[in-house]
Amino acid sequence: MKATLKKATPNPEHSFNIHKDIGHAILSAWHYHPECELLVVKRTYGTCLIGDYVGPFKNGDVFLFGSNLPHTFRCEQKYLESDIEKVGETIVILFENNIWGDAFLNLPEISPIVKLLNTSKLGLRLKGVTRRKVGKIAEEMLNESPARKLINLLSALEIIAASKEYEIISSNGFNPEVNSVDQSRINAIFEYTFNHYHQKVALEDVAALINMGKHSFCRYFKSKTKKTYIQFLMEVRIGNACRLLLEEEFNMTEVGYACGYNNISHFYHQFKALTKKNPMDYRYNYLKTEEKKFI
Which tens digits make up the pLDDT trace of 36-87? Predict the structure, then answer.
């Protein structure tokens, strides 16, 4: 399956697109688009693939993606088919990089926003007060007048640029420029991995998806993603483990088995190698952070 090029078409009253995705509308293939994207996650948890980053996402996360950055978000079935009170939801804002025009973007006062949009080509995850402020602005924009929506989009970007409360998601070496054949192959590998990470995954089976031998496949995958397939599989598994630790009441052994680890010591080792914490500390730190929100 080929990575999809998507382009939002604003209606005559709007220069950009803002909408809410609910349930199955959240799902998409690995895709990219020429517009920048501000994404607010509500009532859902899962695993995201952004550029060359793989990891968990959760309720309340806010992301900013620059032009043509490939990404996909996967969540559990229960967030797609639950009742209206529990079904997954996201707010999506798509806008052109030069939405305000070249003359406006060349103003010295706007240079921090221009720099922010350039940085966002690797993907940004907002943090702290900025995450909450921008999430609230996006929620309000859904029901505002066209002019007020445009003003508040600029306000949200100014807040992000001024605070610098964000982390860069993809690595500096990530290059999104791949041809259609590469896109088709890589997406097939991603799809297979997301669907089978909880089982034993053999390199020969993955290589066969794109008609390659094991060694040729390993060289090919690393040349396109800057990481080995084994590293990628580990990131998918640990990303899902993080989600289960935050979302479910599974014990550590159950989480490890659910993510494809038959050896729990190996699960602990890989989890700490990737997150710098053991699974128990990861869950504890998250719960403590959540408690502080209500103090």
Answer: 999 999 878 788 888 888 888 888 999 999 998 888 888 766 666 656 566 7
CATH code for the domain in which residue 100 is found: 2.60.120.10
**What are the residues whose beta carbons fall under 8 Å from the beta carbon of 223, sequence distance 6 or more?**
none
Strands, sheet with 53-57, edge to edge from the N-terminal-most edge strand: 4-5, 31-32, 71-75, 46-50, 53-57
Write out the H or E segment, with its range, that includes residue 259: none
Q: Tell me, yes or no, whether 156 and 197 share the same domain.
A: no
Domain count, the chain: 2
- Separation in Å, CA 39 to CA 7, 19, 59: 16, 10, 12
Enclosing H/E stretch for 1: none
Query: What phi, psi does 72 have (nearest 5°)?
Result: -155, 150
- pTM, to two decimals: 0.77
- Domain range for 248 is 180-291
Output the CA torsion sign for 286, 287, 292, 294.
positive
Asked if the structure places residue 114 within a domain, the reply is yes
